[in-house]
Write a structure and sequence with these properties.
The protein is α+β, with helices and mostly antiparallel strands. It is built from 5 helices and 11 strands, in the order αβββββββββββαααα. The termini are far apart.
């Protein structure tokens, strides 16, 4: 009897907490532009609609290529961003590009009029996530405490909320800042209002 009461209590506890986590995850994944349009954005900003966009498998030095309606397009020379059925992706240029590695496309997690939030996930030898953001469709910037704080400085009310959530006296290492990233989508949303 005691075991069944304990099991029942655990069941209630988990069932009560699950919807909130599900709603937060669902709310965070809003990176696609409205509608189901497939498109490519070229380096000059021109938007081209497509009927089929595919990507090669990851890990074969082709993360900077996509196939659009049967035609291969390389980044950053021919394409800077695209939207397929899975989301919106923007090209992240590598700091030291080589002949075989120019960078990769990373997924936008939160779209906004002024600021957007992106996620780069690495699975080699473990799982790591890196957040990036852009302002006014500019270049992607690594989301660190200092970079994000500076980016929010032109909106005092959002900067004040950021300072409240991440106090200056406790400057966080980037890993700790990212581990506390649950507030980042909300801050981006506030910034875009």
């Amino acid at each position: 009897m005691r075991q069944s009461c304990f099991f029942f209590a655990l069941l209630i506890l988990f069932s009560c907490s699950t919807p909130q986590a599900t709603n937060e995850a669902r709310q965070f994944d809003r990176g696609r532009e409205t509608g189901n349009a497939l498109f490519v954005i070229k380096p000059d900003g021109q938007k081209i609609t497509a009927t089929k966009i595919s990507r090669p498998s990851v890990g074969n030095h082709t993360e900077d290529r996509i196939t659009v309606d049967g035609q291969q397009m390389d980044a950053p020379d021919q394409v800077m961003a695209f939207q397929d059925a899975n989301g919106y992706y923007k090209f992240l240029k590598d700091a030291k590009p080589t002949k075989y590695w120019k960078g990769e496309f990373i997924k936008r997690m939160r779209a906004g009029r002024t600021m957007s939030l992106y996620l780069k996930a690495l699975y080699a030898g473990g799982h790591e996530e890196y957040y990036y953001f852009d302002k006014n469709d500019g270049p992607l910037t690594l989301l660190t405490y200092e970079n994000f704080s500076a980016a929010l400085s032109d909106k005092p009310e959002v900067k004040a909320e950021f300072d409240k959530l991440y106090p200056k006296k406790k400057v966080m290492a980037n890993r700790e800042f990212e581990a506390n990233s649950v507030n980042l989508p909300r801050l981006v949303e506030m910034y875009n209002q």
